[in-house]
Automatic annotation (TrEMBL), chain A:
Domain of life where this protein originates: Bacteria
InterPro entries xrefs: ABC2_TM (IPR013525), ABC2_TM_bact-type (IPR047817), ABC_2_transport (IPR000412), Nod_factor_ABC_transporter (IPR051784)
Entry annotated with the keyword Zinc: no
Pfam families cross-referenced by the UniProt entry: ABC2_membrane
Organism this protein belongs to: Streptomyces lycii
Family membership: Belongs to the ABC-2 integral membrane protein family.
Record field: transmembrane: 45-69, 81-103, 124-150, 162-184, 191-211, 259-277
Protein's name in the database: Transport permease protein
Membrane topology: Multi-pass membrane protein
Alphabetical UniProt keywords: Antibiotic resistance, Cell membrane, Membrane, Transmembrane, Transmembrane helix, Transport
TrEMBL record, chain B:
GO molecular function: ATP binding
Origin superkingdom: Bacteria
Family the entry assigns: Belongs to the ABC transporter superfamily. Drug exporter-1 (DrugE1) (TC 3.A.1.105) family.
Keywords, sorted A to Z: Antibiotic resistance, ATP-binding, Cell membrane, Membrane, Nucleotide-binding, Translocase, Transport
Pfam families to which the protein is assigned, alphabetical: ABC_tran, DrrA1-3_C
Compartment(s): Cell membrane
Lipid bilayer topology: Peripheral membrane protein
Chief place of localization: membrane
Protein name, UniProt field: ATP-binding cassette domain-containing protein
Domain ABC transporter, residue spans: 5-235
Amino acid sequence: MSTAAGTATRTAAPRARGGIGQSVRDSLVVAKRNLIRMLRIPEMIIFGLIQPIMFVVLFSYVFGGSISVGGDVSSDLYREFLMAGIFAQTVTFATAGAGAGIADDMHKGLIDRFRSLPMARGAVLTGRTLADLVQTALTIVVLALVALLVGWRIHEGILKMLAGFALLLFLGYAFSWIGALIGLSVRTPEAATSGGLIWLFPLTFISNAFVPSDNMPTLLRHIAEWNPFSATVQACRELFGNLPQGYPVADAWPMQHPVLASLLWSVVIIAVFRTLAVRKYRSATV
Amino acid sequence: MPGAIYAEGLVKTFGDVRALDGVDLDVPEGTVLGLLGPNGAGKTTAVRVLTTLLRPDSGKAVVAGIDVLKNPNEVRRSIGLSGQFAAVDEYLTGRENLQMVGQLYQMSGRDAKTRATELLERFNLSEAGDRPAKTYSGGMRRRLDLAAALVVSPPVMFMDEPTTGLDPRNRQQLWGIIQELVAGGTTLLLTTQYLEEADQLAHDICVVDHGKVIARGTSDQLKSRTGGERVEVVVHERDQLTVATEVLRGFGKGEVSLDDHTRRITVPVTGGAKLLAEVIRELDSRGVEIDDIGLRRPTLDDVFISLTGHAAEGEEEPGRPEEAAK
């Protein structure tokens, strides 16, 4: 075969290794790409931080004195109670970013480029969700520091605290697959941003995140108790030692076994939404 | 033996729109096929099917000897795709973009790095290689996009409207790169709305409209199908049109067409330059003053208009069928 000026002989790409090894490698290549992007658009990280910090301040100082947890109206107690809710809300709201990013990639033709390459089929989405996980972890660290400043304390030791953060990040990772599916299903990045946020409001508010669920109407109370979001919040409160004395723990199974329930929910969400998202990706057209 | 790109009876519908309505293609190895057609004709859909991005409803496609429907991942190893939109990550530098694509083509990290440097050099992007692609001009982005499609020197290339939106200088430059590539033996399928582009680059041309191939052949074959040469005269004064028309009718081999507004008269002829000289002498002796006269051969524009009944560019855009279907 002849050669074009300055080019090597025309050759197909090296044969793909296939299997898990290739999936991991391709996912990391894509994750690296998304992390580089994040570093070059620091506004995104900064805005991602401002909102939860605002929530911490607003909820603890504005509502702190009038929301009762466990019969005792004390803003110090409420502040501790609140933090797990804010942390969990932060990791879930971050998932709207995954959807918007993927919709943007579709819009710009990058998804077409990726789909024409001999790469592992889930890698574009896995890479994206992994990069988001790194960003979320960073956000959580900053948020925890702010929380410490306004009076949040842990009472069960560092290891349990880390376990709590791990559960939060795992939930965030699971939800980012829902964000990915939304991003692949809409036509514009703008639609992905609003579509990615809308469902998060009922999810995070019909829960035990900001107020105890036992005062809610029966139907809402049941939803709140079985909400995957509530399980993680409850688990974190236990692991951080942030449940006030005499706080009424509901009889529902997830509230009695919040750590296990949180893990199970995250696994189920990943299994379902990763499958749906990867299938959607393979047939994605702009 | 089928060519490097082969398709038989491709059909793809989006709702009511038949984006591909039985398309057959056969591109011999090392040649360029120009897929020509107006917006929404099905060009992009054809490329998407052949590059494994879209499954056809029916039909057969073979690229680089591999069945596209049965073995898409094998096909992906052997093709390069350069799209209508310059599909590069604008926040990554040119080098980072090329390295990423190389690694996703399953090259080792080190090979991808070496290759990125080579390509930046070749596409005249070395200086800009470490700047985010966001800062690149339109022409530079296209070159980067094309470089990304060439990371593995694939035997088969697809380019979907590679020069749409580029200024003439950048278009010329990109044509040069494409010609070099083809000289190196790459098989290329190129879609374009620019007839001149197909004329310059393609060995064979397929004209598509409404999802069907309505004509195929070399540029010369298509032109001669549309008709032979014509003499075209623009007279200086409108009141000389009648005399001039009479003269041209005497030389012509067909109907004389007259545009009153531009004072232009056109007539099909045979006899070439010699005849043209006679026409000039005759007009002169009858006292007709002319602003312009010439012997005109049909352009691909004429071919296009005569085949489809409308021009290739500048008409109402029906939009891409993919979008229309949603």
